[in-house]
Amino acid sequence: MKTEDNNKRGERVRQDILEFIKQYIQQHGYPPNYREIGDGVGLKSSASVQSHISRMLADGILETDADAGAVRALRVPGMRYINTEQTILDRYLESEKARIVEQLCPYDIPWLVRAVGKEQFEGMRCQQDCEKCWRIRLEEK
Hints:
The protein is mostly helical. It is built from six helices and no strands.
């Protein structure tokens, strides 16, 4: 009976470790070391953390390409970390999008209206005032 309780506790601790590692990677962009894992899940002994990590590696719950005990070398199978910070190119494209919206006639470029939303063009009278946009006058019917 006691062995069964220990097994359930071990599974719960390993689940806590897995969740901690996922959250840590999402927050920092790299995996935690063993001491950080221990602090995060309430294990005081680095040997306990090592034991749980070894079991998780053997069970395929975690992966690593490094030797056993390598610092910050853990991966969660199937987890992809995507950095959502804007790059310089992203910021440039955002500014260009704003310039395009200001300079082009949305009625001639329907994808532009769909991309930025109709409210961006409210108040513009492009269909009547196209000479302002394109220096041409639409024929009125």
